[in-house]
Write a structure and sequence with these properties.
heterodimer, A: 150 residues, alpha+beta, Heat Shock Protein 90, five-stranded antiparallel beta sheet, 5 strands, globular, B: 125 residues, alpha/beta, Transcription Regulator spoIIAA, six-stranded mixed beta sheet, 4 helices
Chain lengths: 150, 125
Amino acid sequence: MEDFMKMECEKRLLLEFDSKSENEGFARIMTSAFVAGLNPTLEELADIKTAVSEAVTNAIIHGYGRNPGIVTLRAAICGREFYVEISDTGVGIEDVCQAMVPLYTTRPDMERSGMGFSFMEAFMDELEVHSAVGEGTRVRMKKQIGAGME
Amino acid sequence: MVKSGKIIVCPGAELSVSGDVLVISLKEDLDHHNAASLRESADQLLRQEGVRHVVFDFSGVEFMDSSGIGVIMGRYKQVIFTGGKAAVCGVGQTVDRIFRFSGIYKIIDRYDTAKEAVRALSRQV
């Protein structure tokens, strides 16, 4: 997926917040407010909120775990396309393909359902995960708003 | 034995016991942030003698992510162990999509209201 921060876009958002669980709701609210200008349907808005919530939760639980860290959320609106990137500089994922297998989780002790990446894939048009052990994880997603109206 | 009507308020939810059914009325988005305290409060009541079933009432919330699926599945595994059932009610369109996508309706029932769910589950032998 293209690096949307380098593209000509009408609107951009950059958020950095502590890897604390209370910021999951904050990330959802900020993203919703940002995308509201595109007049998304309730379903589109719910899809985006879910995908962002999953990615931010992954960064907090898996990226940083008990260690404090900063989660970065970048978003952009280019025409009718909504782009969002959630990244951390935590432990990284050793095997991204395995992490994306539905129901796979490294934290069954926390009752993680292993459906986070499946939700991101299902509710967004495109999903790209880049990760390096010891460096962190970057999740990029894209969704066209108003696709059903054409 | 838990006294029917006992209420526990935890961040994001209100839990009450009606007969042998634990009703968890969600008040805030069910995400990872609210999941931990909810799990703890629910398990405290589920461990009590006389509570067999669990109902999650979503009429007060509009958002849930995969953390919520984990919470429901965790309680489901507990109640089926002792012959109980899990159900959801008051499910709006947004939460319903999450449930349908996760396939959770294959193992838990959906009702319109908490009252209806409690009545149906109480009849389960």
